[in-house]
Amino acid sequence: ALGQSGGNGHLVNGILGELVKLPGIVPEAEPQSVTWYFTNRVGETTVACDKLINNPVACYFGARDRFTLNTSDYSLEIQSVGKGDWGRYDLTVISTTGNVSNLVVELHVYRVSQPTIQVNSTNSTGLCNVTLSCSVERGSEVIYTWGTGGGEAVRDGNPSHPVTHRGRRLHLSLDLPTINTVYNCTVRNPVSEETESIDLATHCPTMKG
């Protein structure tokens, strides 16, 4: 998981199906109580796990099998994190003298799969007109970028290589013959990045390598 802290607490980005760890608070002595609250994306709040003095850790409902409250620093581990775990987690630690410590963690859950590229091409005298469509089977908050086989990025707004459909489609009008026949689609979100390449030599058969 990837994490960062800010003025309002911590943001942790988790990968769907993997383990994620939310930071905790290290108390000076054993506290009277430790409670992790979970608020889902529609605003419903429940107790995920708690630990009362002289009592074992308890996790409830859907958290019972996948959540682990670590008693060393009261961090929270979530196994096989799912979309339903996306939300706000509030940790409240109350000392035996009544002092209260709070920590807020926002958990976001993402996944992106290997992209695929579809090709539509038409040939005319001296030109090969190509539309490349990039897609992913699974993913959230995905950003699409295009590049050439030589590593040159295709900039949005380039009139000779227009990009449409929020970056998913690249339109090319290539002079024949052309040397640069390989194009890459890269998909990324806060936790992952994948790239797929395609060689247009087979779609514009008069190209020369």
Automatic annotation (TrEMBL):
Transmembrane segments: none annotated. PROSITE patterns: IG_LIKE. The keyword Lyase does not apply. Residues 115-201 form the Ig-like domain. It is found in: Membrane. The keyword GTP-binding does not apply. Coiled coil: none annotated. Keywords: Glycoprotein, Membrane, Signal. Its main location: membrane. One of its GO terms (cellular component) is membrane. This is Ig-like domain-containing protein. It comes from Callorhinchus milii (Ghost shark).
